[in-house]
TrEMBL record:
Protein keywords: Dioxygenase, Oxidoreductase
InterPro entries attached to this UniProt entry: Glyas_Bleomycin-R_OHBP_Dase, Glyas_Fos-R_dOase_dom, VOC_core
Gene Ontology molecular function: dioxygenase activity
PROSITE patterns in alphabetical order: VOC
SUPFAM superfamilies: Glyoxalase/Bleomycin resistance protein/Dihydroxybiphenyl dioxygenase (SSF54593)
Pfam families in the cross-refs: BphC_D1, Glyoxalase
Record-annotated VOC domain positions: 6-120, 143-262
UniProt name for this protein: 3,4-dihydroxy-9,10-secoandrosta-1,3,5(10)-triene-9,17-dione 4,5-dioxygenase
Lineage of producing organism: Bacteria, Bacillati, Actinomycetota, Actinomycetes, Propionibacteriales
Length: 299
């Protein structure tokens, strides 16, 4: 069965590219791979980019790139998504080329929140990666990090990610009256997590996570945010399920960014899912007062 292998990239609309340039380079430590008046592409490893920020009149995450092994797997998975009832389209060749992948298909997720792009072979850069802050990001087989999303129809996301895209269950957490589901498609503890199904809650991506190798880099970024480089959402803490030591901050486009280190790796041969009753062993104290239904309150 063809399945997703990793989270390759995220595409973001932004009203302020200059704010993203400063935030991406001086807080997260991403390398600028491309900058024009219309977009910034950030690198975190040998790939041409992992995060693309496009100039727009609104702020939101528009596309998530899920990578598959190769052309046969792409066709099989696109057909499986189509058979599951989604309108799967192949973008024009110019758009595929601009995305810097060999081939791709696109469909809208169950809630109409984000475009999911199935693709293979995101291009490598010919230049060595060099973080302006000396960071070494954890990517490898795990990809760019993870996505947490509040959703309207939990069952639809379970069917899509488990039955169609081939994700496996990592575990669950009870949080603020919700069951949060954590899923993996490679050794990273989770690449996609979701929760919801409660009337009145918005449907939106609450945060993206980026992981680095060194706890000192996390601590220095935490200090910068405490000193006003970005708005702190939750202070430093350690999660119960993936063991990540991290903190949460606001991005210039209004969604959260989790920045951490030490995430757990999953071995499917021995892994047994667990239900947790708290998200953290310690820390993650709230710093930013949020509206009750803000997606950043979850995950």
């Amino acid at each position: 069965m063809a399945e997703v292998k990793s989270l390759a990239y995220a595409i973001v609309n932004a009203t302020d590219l200059d704010a993203w340039y400063d935030y991406g380079t001086n807080v997260i430590g991403l390398q600028v791979g491309e900058r024009t008046d219309e977009r910034i592409r950030f690198r975190m490893d040998h790939k041409l980019y992992r995060l693309e920020i496009n100039k727009a009149e609104e702020d939101r995450i528009t596309h998530i790139g899920w990578e598959v092994k190769g052309p046969q797997e792409l066709e099989e998975l696109a057909n499986a998504v189509r058979e599951a009832g989604y309108d799967v389209q192949r973008p024009a060749s110019e758009e595929v080329e601009d995305r810097c992948v060999v081939d791709m298909y696109r469909f809208t997720d169950p809630d109409g929140t984000v475009q999911c792009e199935l693709h293979y072979a995101l291009y490598d850069s010919l230049e060595n990666f060099a973080s302006p802050l000396g960071h070494r990001f954890v990517t490898g087989t795990g990809g760019a990090g993870h996505v947490f999303q509040l959703v309207k129809d939990v069952a639809a996301y379970e069917k899509l990610y488990f039955d169609v895209l081939g994700f496996r269950l990592s575990d669950w957490i009870s949080f603020k009256g919700l069951k949060l589901t954590f899923t993996h498609c490679n050794p990273r503890h989770h690449s996609f997590a979701f929760g919801g199904g409660v009337p009145g809650l918005p449907t939106a991506i609450g945060h993206l996570m980026f992981e680095v190798e060194d706890i000192d880099h996390v601590g220095r970024a935490h200090d910068k945010v405490l000193n006003g480089a970005a708005r702190m959402i939750n202070g430093l803490g350690r999660h119960t399920n993936d063991k990540m030591i991290s903190f949460y901050m606001d991005s210039p486009s209004g969604f959260g960014v989790e920045f951490g280190t030490g995430g757990l790796l999953v071995d499917d041969e021995t892994w047994t899912p667990t239900w947790y009753t708290k998200t953290e062993y310690w820390g993650h104290s709230p710093h930013l007062t949020l509206a009750k239904d803000d997606p950043k309150n979850y995950g």
